[in-house]
Amino acid sequence: MAKLLDKQRYKCALGAMQTVQAIDRALPILHSGPGCAQKLSESTGSSGYFSPNIFPCTSINEKDVVFGGVKKLDSTIGNALKVIDADLYVVLTGCIPEIVGDDSGEVVSRYEDAEKPVVYAPTAGFKGNNYKGHEQVIDAIVDQYLKKTDKKQKGLVNIWADVPYQDLFWLGNLRQLEKLIAELGLTPNTIFGYKRGIENINKIPEAEFNLLVSPWVGLSNVKKMEKKFGTPYLHYPNLPIGATETSKFLREVGKFAGVAEEKVEAVIKEHEDYYYYLISRYADLFLENRVINKQFTVVADAQYSLAVTKFLVNDLGLIPAKQFVVDDTPKNHRDRITEEFKKLNFGIEAEVSFETDGYKIHEEIKTHDYHGYPLLLGGYYEKEVTENLKGNFLNISWPVQDKVVFDSFYAGYEGGIRLIEDIYTIAVSRFN
Ligand code: SF4
């Protein structure tokens, strides 16, 4: 039976044009109806060299539904190659051409010998959301562009983490992960953001291993790369925020990469010393404030819901009420992620619900007794319900409408401090 989904937290798979856009000088070419890119035009931080308003699009209409849209796709790709200077062209298909059976892959294959690479990702909305679309784009690059090589670079690590733009902190988080990996003496390789792009894409098959920092998004990609390039992978299932999780992360990566234990511990010690120096300066604020209650709820995708829960329990000593994962996590990953929510310090376990319906989430939040002001971290949708409960609200997940994020981040030791600043800024400003 059809059901109504209230307050959806993701876009359709075609939203993966944001993944393409995050690759420097990569251009999405849309084979879709004219309105499909429009939904991204109001997102912040996505203007620049290419933006959703100027992505080439076949703008297919009723006539193309009847006679097929492959001719239009062919001319759109050909003209894009002629007039738009990009390093990589990624054709993304929407619902209509896939329903009417356009063979977009065949059209793209005509450009095999083009000067610049052209690949194709099937991203019809009915196939899933933009988390799946993100995986499709990476798969397309791996399957259709990259080649297996015997050349391997010792210490080169491909890092995969957040879904760009869906997570507003993607750029800063990736840079933090790069920094941490470099401190271990390894060479990070990421493909998203400033001065990365095609050169870094070309290095992917040369890496010693893939590092996936995510509960589930990207797992199929690193498995594919293991099969195609023989690149092993380390799946680290949560974004490390704060000292406890970041130190664990460094130890696990160090062990996997064969970095000397003394070196890993030296890196950890330097970070932890400064981290706890900062924490101790504000211990009175944590212990004596009367407005950050012990119980909290996170409403976010699996990446943030898990990462923030671990941070708030392990580093700040807060107690989890129910946590909500809203990214429509595929069922085969849910048990494993549920187990991760139980691996918290002090023997604490968090209950988690995989729920995409905002109405149901809010009903549960409203009826839970937080024993004081609830602390809610989530999408902008949670602002009103938190205000009605006289709680404290921080907008950390999509949709983000009360902050502008350039390259801020929550990952790593520094990211943990930034998150504490944001939470306690709310606390101290509450009675101003
Ligand atoms: S669901 Fe289909 S028709 Fe709607 S925006 Fe996405 S690709 Fe376009």
Can you tell me about this structure?
This protein is α/β, with parallel strands linked by helices. Among the domains are: 132 residues, Rossmann fold, CATH 3.40.50; 148 residues, Nitrogenase molybdenum iron protein domain (Rossmann fold). 43% of the residues lie in helices and 13% in strands. Strands 8, 9, 10, 11, 12 and 13 form a 6-stranded parallel sheet that branches. A 4-stranded parallel sheet has the order 5-4-6-7, with helices on both faces. Helix 13 links the parallel strand 8 and strand 9. Helix 6 packs parallel to helix 9, helix 10 runs antiparallel to helix 11 and helix 10 runs antiparallel to helix 17. It is globular, with a radius of gyration of 22 Å. The N and C termini lie far apart (50 Å). The model has no long low-confidence stretch (mean pLDDT 94). Iron/sulfur cluster binds next to loops.
Task: Output the keywords.
Rossmann fold, four-stranded parallel beta sheet, alpha/beta, binds iron/sulfur cluster, 43% helix, globular, 17 helices, 432 residues
Q: Tell me the name of the CATH homologous superfamily of the domain at 282-429.
A: Nitrogenase molybdenum iron protein domain
**CATH uppermost class of the domain at 282-429:** Alpha Beta
Q: Based on DSSP secondary structure assignment, what is the total number of beta strands?
A: 13
- Topology order in helix (H) and strand (E) letters: HEHHEHHEHEHEHEHEHHHEHEEHEHEHEH
Q: Write out the distinct hetero groups bound to the structure.
A: iron/sulfur cluster
Q: Give the end-to-end Cα distance, rounded to a whole number of Å.
A: 50 Å
Mean pLDDT: 94
Largest sheet: 6 strands, parallel
Radius of gyration: 22 Å
Strand content is: 5-15%
CATH architecture of the domain at 282-429: 3-Layer(aba) Sandwich
Helix-residue proportion: 40-55%
Described by the principal axes of the CA atoms, the overall outline is globular
pLDDT < 50 runs, ≥5 residues: none
> Oligomeric state of the chains?
single chain
> How many helix segments?
17
Q: What structural category do the secondary elements indicate? A: alpha/beta
